[in-house]
Design brief:
By secondary structure, this protein is mostly helical. The chain has one domain.
Length: about 70
């Protein structure tokens, strides 16, 4: 099917079918994009908050600062 035939076919679709077609096309594009970024069988590191003691300490310090500035008001 060439582009003019495709455009003609799309024009005949109902509004809801056009939205479904757009969703389908966007999904297909996203799949192509993600497959270009991630390779099958390759391992990728994922950060986890488990045992992230420095991050917890930083968060607690920021919460304490926030609490102190709001208590002064």
């Amino acid at each position: 099917m060439n582009m003019p035939q495709l455009q003609s076919a799309v024009k005949k679709l109902s509004r809801s079918d056009k939205f479904r077609l757009v969703q389908f096309i966007l999904y297909e594009l996203a799949e192509e994009e993600s497959s270009a970024l991630l390779k099958n069988g390759k391992e990728y590191p994922v950060w986890s908050p488990y045992n992230a003691h420095e991050a917890a300490e930083t968060l607690l310090n920021e919460l304490d600062k926030h609490r102190l500035t709001h208590d002064e008001k």
